Amino acid sequence: RVGLNFIDLMVRQGNIDNPPKTPLVPGFECSGIVEGLGDTAKGFEIGDRVMAFVNYSSWGEVVCTPMEFVYKIPDDMGYPEAAAFPMNFVTAYMMLFEVANLREGMSVLVHSAGGGVGQAVAQLCSTIPDVTVFGTASSFKHEAIKDSITHLIDRNADYVQEVKKVSPDGVDIVLDCLCGENTGKGLGLLKPLGTYILYGSSNMVTGETKSFFSFAKSWWQVEKVNPIKLYEENKVMAGFSLLNLLFKQSRSDQVRAVMDKLLALYSQKKIKPLVDSLWALEEVKEAMQRIHDRGNIGKLILDVEKTPTPLMANDSTETSEAGEEEEEHEGDNGSKERTPFIQ
Ligand SMILES: NC(=O)c1ccc[n+]([C@@H]2O[C@H](COP(=O)([O-])OP(=O)(O)OC[C@H]3O[C@@H](n4cnc5c(N)ncnc54)[C@H](OP(=O)(O)O)[C@@H]3O)[C@@H](O)[C@H]2O)c1
């Protein structure tokens, strides 16, 4: 199985730094059975159930990756859950506990709270007593995720005002995957000694084809931060990129230690990946469209064993074209080719 991530959408749209040359097989994580081992490979056997990070190419029936990025799947974890686990939970854990030092009584603001990382953040926050979580998400998701987030805010609302209504002093941790003009707002919401972490740039996915102009426009909207102001206001600003940590900065040992802690929390039934839907490899277009349309609650999984749902004769095969203005679909998947297979 393959975990689909927002970054896959960004890769497809060319919204990342130094995209690899095409032809390209996308994908950064998967789960499955070990089919072959290198001569020097130790610690795994043919037939082992494993999950892994892959530096591209996880969207396939057979995947090859160095052993340092592979982890055994616990007996009670299924393949879809395992494909949904590494990226979301390691990212959420490292940001909360290794960068921001989340402790009892603190408060956290997370964007895209109904998504893969957002739900992992919510679950990990619930492992610490008395943590308040503010989360922004499209309003149709609120009913489904209301038990995991203390204060839900519509993604179109003025979240600064909404947070301040409940907590006039702001929050201890802001997790920003939107970037753009949200940096200033996030920093402004921090309590003294609070931590702002930038870990994504979802706002750069606009549906526009990448051009020098669209890229420059996006970067122009990113707010500039004065370090002297951080010093005067006792604020911490950080960035986090798991893929760079793994594939460019050789920190797989540190990530393995985090995976061990996460698997212990899983075995204690304190965390559990939320799977939105399963899709056949042939349905990847519709699956990506569901993320683009903000329809997912939790993680989308490509299932190589799933047979594609037959196309409906009167269905449109149109997806939104690059360059079109984004429309609000809010989970309305009715005019798509196939409907998601909900587990
Ligand atoms: N730095 C890292 O190491 C790292 C690792 C993993 C993920 N990330 C980042 O974390 C964020 C969440 O990733 P994820 O894989 O868990 O995805 P996700 O949250 O499941 O992504 C889909 C959701 O993002 C929200 N969204 C925000 N801006 C959007 C846009 N322009 N177009 C479509 N949807 C948008 C939508 O939810 P609402 O409409 O409900 O807001 C949508 O349902 C992404 O920015 C991703 O790049 C970073």
Automatic annotation (TrEMBL):
Residues 331-343 have a biased composition (Basic and acidic residues). CDD domains: MDR3 (cd08275). This is Vesicle amine transport 1-like. SMART domains: PKS_ER. Residues 1-302 form the Enoyl reductase (ER) domain. Residues 321-330 have a biased composition (Acidic residues). Belongs to the zinc-containing alcohol dehydrogenase family. Quinone oxidoreductase subfamily. It comes from the Eukaryota. InterPro entries: ADH-like_N (IPR013154), ER (IPR020843), GroES-like_sf (IPR011032), NAD(P)-bd_dom_sf (IPR036291), Quin_OxRdtase/zeta-crystal_CS (IPR002364), SV-ATPase_mito-regulator (IPR052100). Residues 308-343 are annotated as: Disordered. One of its GO terms (molecular function) is oxidoreductase activity. Keywords: Oxidoreductase. It holds the Pfam family ADH_zinc_N_2.
